[in-house]
Amino acid sequence: MYKTAFHRSQTLGYRNGYAVVRRPTVGIGGDHLHYNQLSQADLDELANKAPILTYGPPKQAPPAEFVPAHVAFDKKVLKFSAYFQEDVPISSEEHYRIRQVNIYYYLEDDSMSVIEPVVENSGIPQGKLIKRQRLPKNNVGDHYHWKDLNRGIDITIYGKTFRIVNCDRFTQEFLESQGIEVNPPEKMPLDPYTELRKEPVRKYITPSDFDQLKQFLTFDKQVLRFYAIWDDTDSLFGECRHYIIHYYLMDDTVEIREVHERNNGRDPFPLLMNRQRMPKILVENAKNFPQCVLEISDQEVLEWYTAKDFIVGKPLTILGRTFFIYDCDPFTRQYYRDKFGMPDLPRVDELPPYNGYGLIEDSAQNCFSLIPKAPRKDVIKMLVNDNKVLRYLAVLESPIPEDKDRRFIFSYFLATDMISIFEPPVRNSGIIGGKFLGRTKVVKPFSSVDNPVYYGPSDFFIGAVIEVFGHRFVILDTDEYVLKYMESNASQYSPEALASIKNRIQKQDVQEAPAPESENQQAVEEPKAQDLETLIDTIQMHLKDHSCKDNLREAFQIYDKEDSGYVEKETFFKVCDTLNVPVDDSLIKEGQKLWNAFSGDGDAGNTRADHIPRQG
Asked: What gap in Å lies between CA 271 and CA 562, rounded to an integer?
C-alpha cells in the first residue's frame, strides 16, 4: 500500500501565551515513533556510572622536562635606579651630596650588585660599589629576593640606605607577571653641588633703560592715597580697623597709616608700616631669610608691588596682613584713568548686607552709630510737594475669580515717595476692605537688595503693571489732578505713559460731548425729586400685572440684611436680570441718570427696597 500523507507533526505549542517546544508523538504522515522509554532508575544508573568503566583508565601525562635556573633565567637581570645621600661635614660649599646608583638583580642565582655611573671630574671614586653577591637582608641570615624589591622603597645594604625610585621596562613587566603591584616611579633628586657647577662662573647684568632720576623728577610729590580696612574679627577681641595706604610714585614705596578716632582706647601710633618698597613675590630660597634684621634686596625678591596692584574693590596682602581697599582720593582716580585707562573707580560700600527689616536706609543707621538715628530727609522736597498726592484706580491681576471684581486706590505721596493702597469695602462681597498697604516705599522687581530701585511717579500710568510684594496690579484710571501733573511734568514720563493719558482725555471728551438735538427733542432739564417719583410710578405700573413682584421683594430682602430699606445699584440690576424683570431699557437708562444725579460724585448709589410694589 502506497503512502499518501507526508505531513509532519507540529513541534511548537502555546502555553499561557508563550511558544514552547513539545516532543512530537508521531512521525511523517502520522507514523508511530519508536524510541526507548527508560525508567528513572535506568537514567540514574547511567548518570552515576563512571566513564572509566567504559573508556578505561586515563593515561598519565609525561612529566615536564627539568630546566635548571641558570638555563631558564640566563642573562635575565632586573635593573633598579636608586640613590643614597652622603654627608659632607668638611666643606663650605655643600653639606650633603646625592649619589645616583644602579642596582642589578640576577635571577639565575639571586645575586645583586650596586654600580655607580662614573661622572667626569667628580673627584669621587666611582664605579662598582658592591660586587655581585647574595646580599644579607637581616641578622637572621635571610638574603634579599626579587620579591623584596619595588619602586618607592628603601633598602639597607651593609649599613647604607638606598632609595629605589624607578626601574626599567623588563623589570616592571616581570614583577607584574609574578603578581606584584609595582609602585609609581619617583623623581630622582638633583645634587646641589652639581647644579651649582653647571651655572656660569660670571654673571653679566645688562643695565636697565629705566631712569630712576627721571622718575624722581617727574613724579615728585605725587602720592596715591587709598582707604582700606583690615578685618580682624576672626581673632580673639579682634575688630575692623581703618587704614590709609600711601603709594609714592617717585620711588614706588608704600606707607600705611592707621586712622585713629578720639576715645577709641588705642595708642596713637603714627605709622603701622614705615615707608619702604614692598615685596610681592619672594624667591623660594628666601623663605627663611631674617627679614626682621636685614633689609630685603633684589636677590631675594622676584616681583615688587607697583601701582597696578592697588585697585579699589580688591583685597591686597602686605606682609601677611590682608587689606581691603574700598575707596581712593580724586587724584588717584584721575591717575588710573590717564595711566591705565580705567574708568572712575566706584567707592565700595562698607555696610553689611540688608537684613530685610524696614527700609534699607533705616537698617543702615544701625551701622553708623550705637544709637541709631532717623535718616536725613529732603526737607525742600517735602515743603514743595506737601499735600500733593497722586491717586490711581487699579485692579488686582489674579487667577482667582473672586479677585476680578476687586478695586484698589493707589495713593502716591510726592513729598516722601511713599505708596499706600486702599480697597473700598463692598457690602456682601465676602472680602473685608480697608487699608491694603500702609505708607511705605515699594521696591521694583528684579532690583538688587543692596541697591534697591523704588517706584516713582513715572512708573504710574494707565495700563501700567505695578508689582507690590508679590501682588500684581494694573492701573485702570486716574483722577484729574494726575492728568494735570503729567501734563506739567511731561519730561519725566515715557512716551507710552503720555500716550495712555492722551487716550484717556480723548475718551473723556467723547463721553462728555452733548448729543445732537433733533426737532422733536426738548432741552433736558435738571433732575428733580418729582421726576424720580414719576419714574417709580411708571415702573410699578409695568410690574403690576406680573407675578415676579413677589420673588423680587424676597430677593431684595435677602440682600438687605440690615433692613435699611436700601440696596446698591449693582445689586439692583443683578437681581432684575436674574428674575427677568420686564422693564423697558429706556426706563432703566432714565433711572441710572437720576441715581447718578442724586448720588453727587457718580459712585454707585443705593436703591430703596420700599419702592418695590407690594402685592395687594
From this structure: 83
Is the pLDDT at 57 greater than 90? The verdict is no
Under 8 Å between Cβ of 322 and 316: yes
Q: How confident is the model at residue 30 (pLDDT cuts 50, 70, 90)?
A: confident
Domain ranges of the chain: 12-44+47-55, 69-197, 213-339, 379-512, 529-611
Contact 80, 105 (CB under 8 A): yes
CA distance 11 to 20: 9
Query: Which position has the higher pLDDT, 366 or 584?
Result: 366
Does residue 582 register a pLDDT over 70?
Answer: no
- Asked whether the domain spanning 379-512 has the same topology as the one spanning 213-339, the reply is yes
Q: Report the top-level CATH class of 213-339.
A: mainly beta
In 511-573, beta strands by DSSP E: 566-568
- HSE of 53, CA atoms in CB hemisphere, 13 A: 6
Buried-state track 323-342, b at ≥16 Cβ within 10 A, e below 16: bbbbbbeeebbebbeeeeee
The three-state secondary structure class of 222 is coil
Q: Which CATH code for domain 69-197?
A: 2.30.29.170
**How far is 346 from 333, CA to CA, in rounded Å?**
9
Q: What is the pLDDT of residues 427-477, one digit of tens each?
A: 888 888 888 999 888 888 887 776 788 898 888 988 889 999 889 999 988
With beta carbons less than 8 A apart as the criterion, state whether 430 and 402 touch: yes
Q: What is the 3-state secondary structure (H, E, C) of 88-149?
A: CCCCCCCCEEEEEEEEEEECCCCEEEEEECCCCCCCCCCEEEEEEECCECCCCCCECCHHHC
Average pLDDT over residues 183-202: 87
What beta strand segments (E) does 223-379 contain? 223-231, 240-248, 253-258, 273-276, 279-282, 301-304, 315-318, 321-328
Domain 379-512 has CATH 3.40.50.2000: no
8 A C-beta contact, residue 339 and residue 331: no
Query: DSSP letter at 157?
Result: E
How far is C-alpha 485 from the geometric centre of its chain's CA atoms?
43
Does residue 514 contact residue 587 with C-beta atoms inside 8 Å? no
Backbone angles phi, psi at 504, to 5 degrees: -65, -40
Task: Indicate whether this model's pTM tops 0.70.
Answer: no
pLDDT tens for residues 243-263? 999 999 988 899 999 888 888
